[in-house]
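Researcher: Please translate sequence to structure tokens.
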Amino acid sequence: MKSAKMYLERVTEILGKIENEEKDSIDRAARLIADRVEKDHLIHVFGSGGHSIMGAMEVFWRAGGFANVNPLFPAGLSLVDSHPNIERTPGIAGSVLRYYGVGADDVLLIINVNGINPLTIESAMEAKKLGAHVISITSPEFASNVPKNMAARHPSNKNLHDLSEVVVDVHVPAGDSVVKIPGLEQTLGATSTYAVCFAANLIFIRVAEILVEKGFSPPIWTSANVAGGDEANKKNLAKYLSRVHHLYPMF
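Model: Translation complete:
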């Protein structure tokens, strides 16, 4: 299938750009996060709307992930229980951040490919007001190609990458999908989920490298589906159950 090969090539190209061109930004993001891990801060992660929430899900409570990741999953945000307009609704970001305990000197990792919606933009603005460090996983190319004053945009017309202390560029093109089939005007095959999940994992892998080099053992989840997994996870669950909103008791 020519279309399958085309899709594989485009996704691989995007992942390659992240690995090759974002080393410095990934390292800067990782060092900010590693410093907070050492200080026993939670690492707040917000996939701010639509499918971007999957980027936060990717690094929360799964094998090889950091146990102190605190995802922001406000009710009504995911595609399972939301209306698409929620990411376009102004005035709610501050309440979300405060509910999840984002505070001074914390890190808020915002994952949003287009980086233009009100919830995304106001999350970055509110985080900065709270004194938190904003790291973004986003596509400046996408944001820069969305005209000003579109309904999807925040009224300020600001972009997430302009409001972030560190930007990890995922190189996703405007519109997200990349496969063109003859006779069909609209392209198919979204790329953003692969890109943001890859970038997020690269950041946390680098965090672990930095911490281990300093002699600090990071809190990492083991798969619960292998022998000894539950036993290995008991310590992390006991430590973070009362601090991370979406953890729940298993033992």
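Researcher: Any highlights?
Model: The first strand starts at residue 43 and ends at 47.
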